[in-house]
Amino acid sequence: MFHWFKRTHHEHVAPILRLIAGLVLIAILVVTSYFLISEIAFHSAITPLTSPRHFRGMLLPAAPPTVDAVASWMTFEYLNRVFKLPPDALRRELGITDVRYPRLSIRRWAVTAGLDQATALAEVKQAIRNAQAASTN
Question: What's the total number of domains in the chain?
Fold first, then answer.
């Protein structure tokens, strides 16, 4: 009649421990799956980096911006990509010797070259125009 009284303490605890262990394993599996799925989603969001419209994780404008839109935060690498210039076109045009080129911003180049920001921007814009004219010839 009271067969559960005849069980030892160990026999009562073992099923509970198995249940707890199973729940812990399921929780670990759920958490791991969540992080795996979020990593896959993150990487699939940046895989189009091989697309010509992507540059270092940023979506480039559909149409190239005008030369007047050039700003001092932009790097020469970005400008070369956006304006479809040869990698060393602006280096040659501006006489840049800094080893950080093309990952050098216009602002940093201006400081290194001893130019004020307005003059540096004007020179870069003219260099882009010259490089574009040279590439169309």
Answer: 2
Same domain, 64 and 45: no
* Cβ 90 vs Cβ 131: under 8 Å: yes
Q: 65 and 115: one domain?
A: yes
In this structure, are 61 and 126 located in the same domain? yes
Residue 16: CB partners within 8 Å, gap ≥ 6?
none
35: containing domain: 3-50
The sign one gets for the Cα dihedral 10, 11, 14, 19 is negative
Is this model's pTM higher than 0.70 or not? Answer: no
Write out the chain's pLDDT in tens, 137 residues: 455 555 555 566 677 888 899 999 999 999 998 888 877 766 655 444 444 555 555 555 566 678 888 989 999 998 988 888 999 999 999 999 989 998 999 999 999 999 999 999 999 999 999 998 887 76
Distance CA 94, CA 79 (A): 13
Q: Would you give the DSSP letter of residue 98?
A: -
Task: Identify whether residues 108 and 131 lie together within a single domain.
Answer: yes
